[in-house]
Amino acid sequence: MLACLMACSSERATTTGSPVKRVQDRKLAPDFTLKDMDGRAVHLSDYRGKVVLLNFWATWCGPCKIEIPWFMELEQRLKGQGFAVLGIAMDEEGWQAVKPFLAELKVNYRTLLGNESVTQLYGGVDSLPTSFIIDREGRIASIHVGLVSKSRYENEIQALLGQKAGLNGSSRDGVVAATVRRN
Description:
Largest sheet: 6 strands, mixed
Shape: globular
Number of helices: 4
CATH class: Alpha Beta
CATH superfamily: Glutaredoxin
CATH architecture: 3-Layer(aba) Sandwich
Strand order of the largest sheet: 2-10-9-5-6-7
Number of strands: 11
Number of domains: 1
Order of helices and strands: EEEEEHEHEHEEEHE
CATH topology: Glutaredoxin
Strand content: 25-35%
Low-confidence stretches: 1-18, 163-183
Distance between the termini: 6 Å
Radius of gyration: 15 Å
C-alpha cells in the first residue's frame, strides 16, 4: 500500500496529461478486479461503453477531498449520458478508514479498495490524487497527477461524451499532489 511521504501540500507539480489524447495515441486501460465496499468484485471492463473517471485517492489527502465533491456532481449530472466515476481508495487502514469517510460525504459513486498491484498496472501511482479519464472503448484519454480544475475534468469528459468537438491547445492549471512511497 501507499504511505504519505509528504503531507498533501501546496507543492506545485505538473499534470501528466494535457488535453485529451488523439484516438490513435490512446492506450488500452489495464483491466483489474477490485472489491467494492459490499465485497462485490468489480472489473474496469464492466464499464466498457462508458466514459470513466478513474480516481486514485486517500482519506488523508487534502487535494483528494477537494475533488470528491466535484466528482459526485459530475456523476450525478452525467451518469445518464454514459459517464461513471470509479474511486480507488489507497488507505492503508482499508475499509475501516474508507467506509466512514464515504458515508460522511455521502459519496454517490462506486469506490473500490486499491492495492499495490493495481497501482503498478497504471504505471506506478506515486502521487495522490491521480486520475485517468478513459474513453468508451476503454482507452486512456488523459492522465492527471495532482489537483487540476473542475472545469478541466468537465471539458475533457464532455469532449469524450461527444458533446463538444474536442479540446485544442493546453491548459496550465495549477496542480497539487501528495507524494507517496511504497512500504
